[in-house]
Design a protein that fits this description.
This protein is of the alpha/beta class and 450 residues long. It contains 17 helices and 20 strands. The protein is globular, with a radius of gyration of 23 Å.
Length: 450
């Protein structure tokens, strides 16, 4: 490449929420920053689509607004932009014994729920009296079985992780997936006692519940990108990374041709595989560590529904499907129950998740095969034989990072290795949590650190 070299204070690769967070942290410190991303819109997987009177998401459907995200939204004057989900979101279901059973939300419901046997319920209540253990190297299943009993781990925790990670609780690492629960046990010897103690501490808090915006999460991404102005260089693909003295040099390709950038500070906020490809010429060991981070594929299907055709009411947030049920569907969100303007009057909008580690090949199957799988499972779960149509199918081959048992140690080793190269920080959902707010927080932290 022979493009003129552009020198800035900092470079960020990846304009997903992690990259946007890093760019804002750098801007707040007065650094001239260039944020490079090959997409034509910011936000990465935050993509909202309007189809007639329906508004749906191709990627994540909701966000939790945790303390770092809330602080940024307030600083940018965007707190009023987010929209809380309706109270219906508190009612959630689990497909169990051919029925949609509500997940317990209080002590009375926990005592009467058919999701656990009497013995399973008593085992959960014993948690404060279970001897302290060591969660280091444990899977989520091992940790939760030890603290809450195997029944609760399989029937409740496993189903919950299906909705969040599309993964296998026997492979996901407890320290990475449930850091607060693990820390509660380490500090207080019990999850319950530890969480009660943490609640009494005066620490920054986010907003309660789940959120979107009136125009979807893609609109939130655009709102986060807007204050960055020309620093947000969309349609620019970073292709080569090199070390040039105490500076980083990136050769890129944009709509106008070749580009070359130089900066002392660099944040790689792209997905792990893309970051690995860039860093390979600089540190092959770091690249191999990034490539080793596994992802689960997801197919997200937006479905328009006539609620009158369902034999079961489309109530609450939606439902999850445990592995033991043997269905293809991982879960279903009733999005028109949660936020206004998602479906025309008299109709409903559902987002249905397929794939994950249960059915990874789903991401490569044609639409008609996926539709047949949906038809069978919608009839079993909701009694829907007709009265629904697919609006959109979004395929994400690398959708959700799968933190393994040793993930916390891996992340620490990768961060230390990156630090040896100079002013380089890593950020993204693979590093600090798969939620949108977690990814944003990782970018903010990386921007501050670099």
């Amino acid at each position: 490449m022979s493009a003129a070299l552009r020198d800035v204070d900092a470079l960020v690769v990846g304009a997903g929420v992690a990259g946007l967070g890093a760019a804002h942290a750098l801007k707040a410190r007065g650094f001239e920053t260039a944020l490079l991303d090959p997409s034509t819109q910011p936000g990465g997987v935050l993509q909202s689509v309007r189809a007639g009177d329906y508004l749906f998401e191709r990627g994540p459907n909701t966000i939790a607004v945790k303390a770092p995200a809330l602080a940024l939204l307030r600083r940018l004057g965007l707190e009023d932009r987010v929209l809380p989900a309706s109270p219906a979101s508190r009612l959630r279901f689990l497909y169990h014994d051919a029925c949609l059973e509500p997940l317990p939300t209080g002590l009375a419901a926990a005592v009467t729920t058919p999701l656990l046997s009497p013995r399973g319920k008593l085992r959960v209540l014993r948690e404060p009296f279970v001897r302290r253990g060591d969660a280091a190297g444990e899977s989520v299943h091992e940790f939760c079985s030890r603290r809450l009993g195997p029944e609760a781990s399989e029937r409740l925790v496993g189903a919950f992780l299906t909705g969040v990670y599309a993964g296998d609780e026997r492979e996901l690492g407890a320290e990475a997936v449930f850091p607060q629960l693990v820390e509660a046990e380490r500090e207080s010897g019990s999850i319950v006692r530890g969480l009660l103690a943490a609640r009494r501490r005066d620490s920054p808090r986010g907003l309660r519940g789940i959120y979107s915006t009136p125009l979807g999460l893609g609109d939130l991404a655009a709102a986060l990108a807007e204050p960055l102005g020309d620093a947000c260089r969309l349609g620019v693909r970073a292709e080569r990374l090199a070390r040039d003295g105490d500076h980083w040099r990136i050769e890129a390709r944009g709509a106008g041709g070749d580009e070359a950038w130089s900066a002392k500070r660099l944040v790689l906020a792209a997905p792990a595989a893309e970051s690995a490809a860039l860093v390979e010429p600089v540190d092959a060991t770091l690249a191999a560590g990034l490539r080793a981070i596994a992802y689960a594929p997801i197919v997200s299907v937006a479905v328009a529904v006539d609620p009158a055709r369902a034999s079961r009411p489309l109530a609450g947030f939606g439902f999850l499907v445990p592995r033991a049920a043997g269905l293809r569907v991982l879960g279903c969100l009733f999005m028109s129950n949660l936020f206004p303007g998602r479906a025309p009057s008299g109709h409903a909008l559902m987002t249905i998740m397929l794939g994950g580690v249960r059915w990874p090949e789903a991401v490569e199957l044609p639409d008609d095969v996926l539709r047949d799988a949906l038809a069978a499972d919608l009839e079993r779960t909701l009694g829907l034989r007709d009265g629904w149509e697919v609006l959109h199918v979004a395929r994400w081959p690398r959708a959700v990072p799968q933190p393994a048992r040793d993930h916390v140690g891996r992340v620490r080793d990768l961060a230390q290795r990156a630090a040896r190269l100079g002013t380089l920080e890593l950020a993204g959902a693979w590093k600090a949590g798969v939620g949108v707010s977690d990814a944003l927080a990782s970018g903010l932290a990386a921007g501050d650190a670099v």
